[in-house]
Automatic annotation (TrEMBL):
One of its GO terms (molecular function) is NADP binding. It catalyses: D-glucose 6-phosphate + NADP(+) = 6-phospho-D-glucono-1,5-lactone + NADPH + H(+). PROSITE patterns: G6P_DEHYDROGENASE. One of its GO terms (cellular component) is chloroplast stroma. GO terms for biological process: glucose metabolic process; pentose-phosphate shunt, oxidative branch. Keywords: Carbohydrate metabolism, Glucose metabolism, NADP, Oxidoreductase. This is Glucose-6-phosphate 1-dehydrogenase. It comes from the Eukaryota.
Length: 513
């Protein structure tokens, strides 16, 4: 296809043809990147993908020659797409630095193409449009599948057969959910691999793009003080906690088919756990890191029903306002048993982590929005200062908290002498508070991941064997929950979740942080 286009360009001699659609002079030895957002009319595209692309442009991270194309069934002109996109763009870095001008320049590089997801013909038309913008340069193409999972394969098929690059790379970012159990995930992988090689597939888990999750490996492997403590010898338990202070508002239809275990635990929290617990990789190379993560997942026991608590939020009235129950959502079937909360104890059967409970807790419509990793250390043996803590020895142990969001921070709870003539101890924090330490704003996870995909960096994307291992841990439990129709523990909207989570933790001598 490149040859044909090149010939076409060479045979045309008018002066306009030496410029591309964005007005740049064409040099065929240069390369260009075309990013097609498939499902551009949707929620994720508006909320996250276009703003992330703009932020990358603003920071000068996109190559000189790039085109962004929205693709969806909705009828829209380029101007309408630009208008839609412009409403969600923000200049988060520094409003004074020509933000409006940059936005305008960015929007000029955004185009729209309307088509069906299962039409090779429509994708062939897209291909023609992309070629016009690429102007005969080496064309690299990134497709972001921001569409419901039931149409992933249709879109991948048509994109790969009719719109992949003829002379550069073609990559596809696939959004979750990657199936709903081991079988459906394997079927999805198999179908994707009919059209794409594994190196072309970028399975996104946006939690891996979060700043503090990226920092986990830096913390562990570039500081002498943490790694020696990172084992069953010193760590009593580790907690991965996700909570949102809103319900499934607007996404109940999607959510009911998945539930919180698939939505958050099997991917976001498990990925963080794997990074937390992995051995030192041979290098920072994507394959070396992913090899170590897979080893952790394969050393874990599949979840047992008795190690899991599930909950669902119910309506609650507070201060005269009534917050709805999960099943009040019109898109959720009445009587749905889908969990909106879950707590679980997991174990890694290897030499480093034998017997250490890894606890996960994830819930919607809770009292707060946050995501944290909490590492609780063992008691100091024969602690000289125990009497300061009375019988509550738990309070005397060190705890390392990595607050992924909001208000990113890493702090270590230590015991400290209260200044004065007496000998009284209290708990204080050694505190790295990002907002106080770093003036630059933290990039959104989607910015990092989109940039990595453009650059071909796979470290933060999920490899298919990782995905298989992750599903193997959760599939038996998910089947059992569904087959036995386990009734969730109901908790009021805005509360701390079901009390069962505390009993579960207590069984392993753990108190939630
Ligand atoms: P949407 O439901 O908004 O769908 C995106 C677009 O796909 C729609 O604008 C619509 O475009 C098209 N579409 C929707 N339903 C159908 C259908 N049944 N058949 C054919 N086309 C359809 O999805 P989101 O933007 O919310 O999410 C996109 C992907 O990202 C999903 O896989 C989702 O699970 C995932 N995701 C979303 C998150 C979010 O916050 N929204 C967070 C994490 C992941 P048109 O009609 O114009 O063709
Ligand atoms: C998505 C889930 O993957 O992550 C949503 O599908 C959830 O249910 C979202 O709300 C949370 O992401 P963040 O980045 O806002 O914590």
């Amino acid at each position: 296809p490149f040859k044909k286009l090149k010939d076409g360009l060479l045979s045309g001699t008018s002066s306009e043809e030496s410029k591309d659609a964005a007005g740049f002079d064409i040099n065929e030895n240069e390369s260009t990147v075309s990013i097609t957002v498939v499902g551009a009319s949707g929620d994720l595209a508006k909320k996250k993908i276009f703003p992330a692309l703009f932020a990358l442009y603003y920071e000068g991270c996109l190559p000189e020659h790039f085109t962004i194309c929205g693709y969806a069934r909705s009828k829209m002109t380029d101007a309408e797409l630009r208008n839609m996109v412009s409403r969600t763009l923000t200049c988060r870095i520094d409003k004074r630095e020509n933000c409006d001008e940059k936005m305008e320049q960015f929007l000029k590089r955004c185009f729209y193409h309307s088509g069906q997801y299962d039409s090779e013909e429509n994708f062939a038309d897209l291909d023609k449009k992309l070629k016009q913008h690429e102007g005969g340069r080496v064309s690299n193409r990134l497709f972001y599948l921001s569409i419901p999972p039931n149409i992933f394969i249709d879109a991948v098929k048509c994109a790969s057969l009719s719109a992949s690059s003829g002379n550069g790379w073609t990559r596809v970012i696939v959004e979750k959910p990657f199936g709903r159990d081991s079988e459906s995930s394997a079927a999805l992988t198999k179908s994707l691999k009919q059209y794409l090689a594994e190196e072309q597939i970028f399975r996104i888990d946006h939690y891996l793009g979060k700043e503090l999750v990226e920092n986990l490996s830096v913390l562990r492997f570039s500081n002498l003080i943490f790694e020696p403590l990172w084992s069953r010898q010193y760590i009593r338990n580790v907690q991965f906690i996700f909570s949102e202070d809103f319900g499934t508002e607007g996404r109940g239809g999607y959510f009911d088919n998945y539930g919180i275990i698939r939505d958050i635990m099997q991917n976001h929290l498990l990925q963080i756990l794997a990074l937390f617990a992995m051995e030192t990789p041979v290098s920072l190379d994507a394959e070396d890191i992913r090899n170590e993560k897979v080893k952790v997942l394969r050393s874990m026991r599949p979840l047992q029903l008795e190690d899991v608590v599930v909950g669902q939020y119910k309506s609650h009235t507070k201060g005269g306002v009534t917050y709805p129950a999960y099943t009040d959502d019109n898109t959720v079937p009445k009587g749905s048993l889908t969990p909106t909360f879950a707590a679980a104890a997991l174990f890694i059967d290897n030499a480093r982590w034998d017997g250490v409970p890894f606890l996960m807790k994830a819930g919607k419509a809770l009292h707060t929005k946050s995501a944290e990793i909490r590492v609780q250390f063992r008691h100091v043996p024969g602690n000289l200062y125990n009497r300061n803590f009375g019988t509550d020895l738990d309070r005397a142990t060190n705890e390392l908290v990595i607050r992924v969001q909001p208000d990113e921070a890493i702090y270590l709870k230590i015991n400290n002498k209260v200044p004065g003539l007496g000998m009284r101890l209290d708990r204080s924090n050694l505190n790295l508070h990002y907002a106080a330490r770093y003036s630059k704003e933290i990039p959104d996870a989607y910015e990092r991941l989109l940039l990595d995909a453009v650059e071909g960096e796979r470290r933060l994307f999920i490899r298919s064997d990782e995905l298989d291992a992750a599903w193997s841990l959760f599939t038996p439990l998910l089947k059992e929950l569904e087959e036995k129709k386990i009734i969730p523990e109901y908790y009021p909207y805005g509360s701390r979740g079901p009390v069962g989570a505390h009993y579960l933790a207590a069984r392993y001598n753990v108190r939630w942080g």
